Amino acid sequence: MPARIDTQGYVRVTFPGFDKPLTSWRGQKVKDMSFEQKDKIVWIFNELILGGQYDAVKMWFPKERAKFLIKKVAYEWLDHKGKRPGTLHEQKRIIEKYILPHNGKQSVKELVIQDFDWIRQEHGDTHHARQIRSFTQAILNYCWKRGMMDKQLYIWPINVGKKPTPYIELEDRWLIHSKVDPLYQDPLAVAIEMGMRVGEIVALKPDALDLKRNQIRIIRALSGYEITDMRKGGDEIWLPLDMPYIEHTQDILGKRNLQSKWIFPAPKGGFIWPGRVSNAFKAAARGIGLPQATLHQCRHSFAQDRLQEYPPHIVQALLGHKAIKTTEGYVGTNIRKLKRVREVYGHNT
Predict the structure, then answer these.
(1) Is position 155 within any domain?
(2) Distance CA 296, CA 279 (A)
(3) Strands 28-29 and 165-167, how do they pair?
(4) Same domain, yes or no, for 199 and 230?
């Protein structure tokens, strides 16, 4: 018969010009399957092969192909990197919408540099193309380091001018704060004064506070749809609460009930969903005539404010950047100050 269970427990498929073991089937390792499952797979393959309906090339046979699908490797890479919440969502979107449709049906070993010409053909020399290229290159580097590729592929960089950094005036940040739902005002105040990411703020628990030393540590963040501890390789970030510009945060934390599970609990007892805080911020920003303002821009604005007072290595610690190069990207950059729209709901601002 064309398919059988061999002495090592694999399903072996043999027909003229082809003889290979099946190492996996629909995401599950064949060697871990029961005999009944393997017997069913043998029956399926025999029906396909004897009926002339099986093509080893078109059906992406497992050992050289399904084991190294871009889709599998891409998500392994995301798990390996352990990116912060907002970035992780954006990377998943780019992988699913752009990279997989072009390269998801090939083995990693079969990829050549020409397989990535679509990045420039479809997106040109744009910031979006550069973002797609950087994620794709990172995945390829990961495959090469793990020995999945015979040689390292290098996609030529896409050089475009640096986007100006959006900046919201401090007065406008606090005006937006005053307009949001009271439930979200305290988390938003921390974002404005400390430059923390919203995924880090909603994940704060009482054990992250040390009010005697005036410190707060970031050891958790939103990952996917749940709060998780910082992944392996992610350092704890200690932030001072005694800096001269931190006033509201000290008052907020001093009044918090530290017996609660979360520092900023939702009405039903869980953590506040970050999207709700972001949406409340956007709605309030539109109300004062800043439709382009987003919550994360408070972090950019915080960085610009602090760089006027402190050297980059101190701002690096305040922002929790692993590399000083990330912080230095804010130094001397073109600042795009968000200006108020003159008419808001028919009234001058």
Answers:
(1) no
(2) 11
(3) unpaired
(4) yes
> Exposed, middle or buried, 124 (CB in 10 Å: 0-12/13-18/19+)?
exposed
CA distance 135 to 184: 33
pLDDT digits (tens, 9 = 90+) for 85-108: 456 677 778 887 888 777 766 667
**Cα–Cα distance measured from residue 133 to residue 207, given in angstroms and rounded to the nearest whole number:** 40
190 plus 306 within the same structural domain = yes
Whether 20 and 121 map to the same domain: the answer is no
Residue 349 CB-half CA count within 13 A: 15
How is residue 239 written in tokens?
């932030």
Distance of alpha carbon 283 from alpha carbon 176, whole angstroms: 9
What pLDDT is stored for residue 59 in this prediction?
A: 53
Range of the domain at 28: 3-62
Closest CA to 276 of 173, 187, 163, 207: 187
Length of the chain: 349
Rounded CA separation 327/99 (Å): 29
Last residue of a domain, one of 43, 62, 81: 62
Q: What is the DSSP letter of 215?
A: E
Report if residue 22 sits inside a domain: yes
Q: What is the pLDDT of residue 56?
A: 58
**Model pLDDT for residues 139-154, shown as the tens digit of each residue:** 888 888 877 777 888 9
What was the pLDDT predicted at 162? 74
Given a cut of 70, the residues of the chain with pLDDT beneath it are: 1, 17, 26-27, 53-72, 80-88, 104-107, 223-225, 230-235, 257, 332-334, 342-349
Is residue 212 a part of any domain in this protein? yes
In whole angstroms, how far apart are CA 117 and each of 17, 94, 121, 168? 33, 16, 6, 38
Alpha helix segments (H runs only) across the chain: 35-50, 70-81, 85-94, 100-103, 118-123, 127-145, 170-179, 182-194, 198-201, 248-255, 274-287, 297-307, 312-319, 324-328
Q: What is the number of domains present in the chain?
A: 3
What percent of the residues of the chain are helix, what percent strand, and what percent coil, each to the nearest 5? 45, 15, 40
Domain CATH code at residue 108 = 1.10.150
